[in-house]
Design brief:
Number of strands: 21
CATH architecture of the largest domain: Alpha-Beta Barrel
CATH superfamily of the largest domain: Alanine racemase
Radius of gyration: 23 Å
Distance between the termini: 52 Å
Helix content: 25-40%
Bound molecules: ligand LLP
CATH class of the largest domain: Alpha Beta
CATH topology of the largest domain: TIM Barrel
Largest sheet: 9 strands, mixed
Shape: globular
Strand content: 15-25%
């Protein structure tokens, strides 16, 4: 079937959609809807693929860091620890969650373009290994807090290599005009490097870049790696500084639609590896310890969201609307970015596709017209209250971007592993939603 866009999807003899071999109709009955499902076996496979590919391409010092903004909750950090991954964290909330389950924070890299003094202290007190520093003010602030503590903090400097990754604007970060990082092109990257080297409580371990997200073109990664390596050679020549680490960021694309390309992680990492090795030889640089920061490509295809269909509204001459029991509160990505998704009926998957179809907007239940999960979706004309609807590839940036708008409680996260399922995040109750109110 064309819509089985990832190999963990299938349809069973009852014509029910399955994820990781498990019947989604039974899972919806057991856990209720709306429901986030995450295929843990798939997540572990992605981690192992990155780990193996990076070690083969860049040697034993290489380490993938899971960009945990893609999906952050306790169990995901346990899995990352078990798989031997590092992590990228961007807030005290993510640090706290990882710390709560004993993730070894010396393998954590703390991002953000505007860390407050309180954030810096919080992260240092919990032993976060690396700060990825965005700008000069932040360097001063980290130096000040480290000097007050009498410690030396390892840092990477976030640089912008000036590359347009050809992705949608909201996730494009590697060009010069960006709120992130210091640009190589304008000389600010060199300035900040020279300055960082003068600060006694900072240890400059190396450099970081991240050009964008949902990128399929390997050439984007090759070009940014080349710019970064050339900058490293320049810093060696001009300032006698040799970077030990180079972090190439995340951004590998995933399939939301059947027409999206398949990005082969192992092949892409290998290609980047060959090019980095060759350039290091050419520039006379020792191979730095390489980091990559995959988020989406670790968790997206492991995920699916299940909803129950409610109202079906056919407006003759206009659009048809299929309303579900979730919406922009559990998945704001269409509202924010017009992100495409594959939407299927999970309780009669192949039969539904064989029937006469209509086009509809799949919408949520917020008091807001923009509360749309997807437009122009093909559904059988018989779609009705009680049908189970699945949105595929929701493992990344869905739960982590969810909100309580309209005080709608968040769905639970259920993990699928080895033919079993278990709750990783409980369903919120209406009482949970007002627990901080005084
Ligand atoms: N490293 C850095 C510094 C990043 O800013 C990001 C993503 C990543 C790694 C991970 O990128 P990934 O492998 O997931 O593409 N909310 C948006 C995505 C924002 C991405 C932000 N940074 C979305 O839903 O598409």
């Amino acid at each position: 079937m064309k819509n089985m866009i990832c190999d963990n999807l299938s349809v069973n003899e009852k014509d029910h959609l399955c994820l990781g071999g498990q019947d989604t109709v039974l899972l919806a009955e057991q856990y209720g809807t709306p429901l986030y499902l995450l295929d843990e076996d798939r997540i572990r496979l992605q981690c192992r693929t990155y780990l193996r590919a990076m070690r083969e391409a860049f040697g034993e010092a290489a380490l993938p860091l899971y960009a945990s903004k893609a999906a952050s909750f306790k169990q995901i950090y346990r899995i990352m620890q078990e798989e031997g991954m590092g992590i990228d964290v961007v807030s005290v909330g993510e640090i706290c969650t990882a710390h709560a389950v004993g993730f070894p924070l010396e393998r954590a890299y703390f991002h953000s373009n505007n860390k407050t003094d309180a954030d810096i202290l919080y992260a240092m007190e919990r032993g976060v290994g690396y700060f990825v520093v965005d700008n000069r003010e932040e360097l001063d602030a980290i130096e000040r807090v480290a000097s007050e503590k009498g410690s030396v903090q390892k840092i990477l400097l976030r640089l912008t290599p000036g590359i347009d990754p050809h992705t949608y604007e909201a996730v494009s970060t590697g060009n010069v005009d960006s709120k992130f990082g210091s640009a190589i092109e304008t000389g600010q990257a060199e300035e900040i490097t020279a300055y960082a080297l003068t600060l006694p409580h900072l240890h400059l371990a190396g450099f970081h870049c991240h050009v964008g997200s949902q990128v399929f073109d390997a050439d984007v990664f090759l070009r940014s790696a080349e710019i970064m390596l050339r900058f490293m050679a320049e810093m060696r020549d001009k300032h006698g500084y040799l970077a030990e680490e180079l972090d190439l960021g995340g951004g590998f694309g995933v399939r939301y639609l059947a027409e999206d390309p398949v990005m082969n992680i192992a092949d892409t990492v290998k290609t980047v590896g060959e090019s980095v090795q060759a350039l290091c030889r050419q520039l006379g640089l020792p191979l730095p310890a390489i980091r990559m920061e995959p988020g989406r490509s670790i968790v997206a295809e492991a995920g699916m969201t299940l909803y129950t269909v409610g109202t079906v509204k056919q407006i003759p001459g206009y659009k048809n609307y299929v309303s579900v029991d979730g919406g922009m509160t559990d998945n704001p990505r269409f509202a924010l970015y017009r992100s495409p998704y594959t939407v299927l009926l999970a309780n009669r998957t192949e039969k539904a596709e064989a029937e006469e179809q209509m086009r509809c907007s799949v919408v949520g239940r917020c008091c807001e017209s923009g509360d749309i999960l997807q437009e122009n979706v093909k559904m059988p004309k018989t779609v009705a209250r009680g049908d189970l609807l699945a949105v595929l590839t929701t493992g990344a940036y869905n739960y982590s971007m969810s909100s309580n708008y309209n005080r709608i409680p968040r769905p639970p996260v259920v993990m699928l592993a080895g033919g079993e399922s278990y709750l990783a995040v409980k369903r919120e109750t209406p009482e949970d939603v007002c627990r901080n109110d005084l």
